[in-house]
């Protein structure tokens, strides 16, 4: 069980930095226990589990890891926690962005260095509610993942590419995943090596690599590369809610389109995803007028 400590170069909000990796409550690959963050994933060295704890009195981050992927996870700990991220590169052009950054100085963009780990759940989230996607991810990992190394028994590591490819059609159906999304995942795992190469590319090349695969569009590519690369400019387009939130927060108007959102964020070119994260952290959202979108369940069909 190797361990490591790391001195962050500045303020670090551990939970908000890594919270974007959690896919809903009960995520078998991510958890919080006694204030410590746990993450199970499939690394180039094999399955691994990482436990991360902040030690404010010492100004340090403490980490332990288990499994064949333990050394890989510990070696990449600073990168995961945003060592190469530079929040100061964003110049606030709106008061709400300035205030959000002042209130949340420790939020950094995590960089996992893993593509499929973020790509597969992002595909599951296409065109469905978050609850549906989280349920699918949870069921698929519980039934087809493997127990994660380490002492927390509930954690699971997602299947290796061949394991995803061997999931029968009725299991996708049982998890509520339609043929379009399951087919996109199967294409991704069959091209796993090519997909993982995107972790070593710049944002533009990585986006092109992912979108060369049918079933992966701008929304899915951005959601993946925000986590894989910690890309500060990977703004999500095609989202049902994000343009409306950004538009309302910056102008007070409702019904903002993707095109209008991009115009509003133009002053943050190169840092548009970071600006959007800060706006979301401000909590300024349009009041709900319509009932929540109903959750579908194709497993009942």
From TrEMBL:
Keyword Transferase found: no
Catalytic activity: Hydrolysis of alkylated DNA, releasing 3-methyladenine, 3-methylguanine, 7-methylguanine and 7-methyladenine
GO MF: alkylated DNA binding; DNA-3-methyladenine glycosylase activity; DNA-7-methylguanine glycosylase activity
GO biological process: base-excision repair, AP site formation; DNA alkylation repair
Protein name as catalogued: DNA-3-methyladenine glycosylase II
Protein's organism: Streptomyces glebosus
EC numbers: 3.2.2.21
Highest rank taxon of the organism: Bacteria
Gene Ontology CC: one annotated term: cytoplasm
Keyword terms, alphabetized: DNA damage, DNA repair
PANTHER family listed in its UniProt record: DNA GLYCOSYLASE, DNA-3-METHYLADENINE GLYCOSYLASE
Presence of keyword Transmembrane: no
Xref: CDD domains: ENDO3c
């Amino acid at each position: 069980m190797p361990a490591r400590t790391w001195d962050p170069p500045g303020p670090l909000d551990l939970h908000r930095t890594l919270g974007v990796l959690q896919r809903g409550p009960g995520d078998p690959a991510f958890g919080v226990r006694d204030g410590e963050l746990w993450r199970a994933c499939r690394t180039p060295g094999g399955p691994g589990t990482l436990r991360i704890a902040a030690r404010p009195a010492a100004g340090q981050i403490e980490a332990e890891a288990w499994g064949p992927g333990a050394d890989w996870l510990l070696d990449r700990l600073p990168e995961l926690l945003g060592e190469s991220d530079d929040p100061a590169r964003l110049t606030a052009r709106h008061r709400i962005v300035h205030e959000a950054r002042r209130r949340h100085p420790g939020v950094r963009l995590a960089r996992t260095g893993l593509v499929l780990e973020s790509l597969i759940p992002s595909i599951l989230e296409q065109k469905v509610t978050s609850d549906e996607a989280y349920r699918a991810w949870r069921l698929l990992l519980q039934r087809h993942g493997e127990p994660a190394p380490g002492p927390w028994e509930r954690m699971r590591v997602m299947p290796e590419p061949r394991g995803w490819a061997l999931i029968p059609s009725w299991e996708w159906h049982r998890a509520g995943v339609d043929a379009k999304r399951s087919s996109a995942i199967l294409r991704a795992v069959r091209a796993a090596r090519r997909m993982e190469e995107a972790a070593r590319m710049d944002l533009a090349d990585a986006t092109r690599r992912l979108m060369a695969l049918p079933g992966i569009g701008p929304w899915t590519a951005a959601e993946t590369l925000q986590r894989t690369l910690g890309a500060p400019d990977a703004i999500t387009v095609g989202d049902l809610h994000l343009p409306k939130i950004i538009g309302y927060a910056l102008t007070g108007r409702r019904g903002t389109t993707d095109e209008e959102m991009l115009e509003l964020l133009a002053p943050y070119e190169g840092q548009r995803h970071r600006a959007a994260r800060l706006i979301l952290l401000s909590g300024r959202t349009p009041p709900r007028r319509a009932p929540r979108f109903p959750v579908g369940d194709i497993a009942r069909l």
